[in-house]
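Forgive a beginner's question, but would it be possible to get any protein sequence you like and the tokens describing how it folds?
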Amino acid sequence: MTLPLIAILRGILPEEARDVAEVLIGAGITRIEVPLNSPDALRSINTMSKAFSAVAEIGAGTVLTLDEVQSVADAGASFVVSPNCEPAIIERTRALGLGSFPGVFTASECFSALRSGATALKIFPANVMRPEGLSALRAVLPAGAEMYPVGGIGPDDFAAWRRAGATGFGLGSSLFKPGFSLDRIADEAARSVAAWQSSADPT
């Protein structure tokens, strides 16, 4: 079963992409995002997609234009993440058969994203909204809307956010930073998976 945890590898280098992805997948995190403002991000995406598309979902983050949507699709990405809610980006992403995770913060942005066909909502920046804000959004959004807080989230925060209605999480600096060793990435990934499993019943 794929866990609803997305590893955000901002700053990863193409030459380390395969090894890092292998470590994450081995720990149980099988959704991996490479932000486009990473060095040669498309090559990293392509490398990981070719190696692991049968067992993992490889996506692109910080996708801001229609041309970028096409480029990441061509590189083998299976989902697109943006920091903002742009209906044209969502619609083009879905037309290409990719998952769409637009960044939202307000109720208006959430509803706009869902109307445009978003697969799930990236709540960003989550450390500003806090769980109380997510709980308020949950009260008005469709029950089936998937919501992924991103920004300042770590394993210690999972239970509180899940009580507020989080579906999953995007994990950045708590999981990966340039310079982290493979052992450290493996340890952080294992900690995140264990925290997710232990918060399965947040009531």
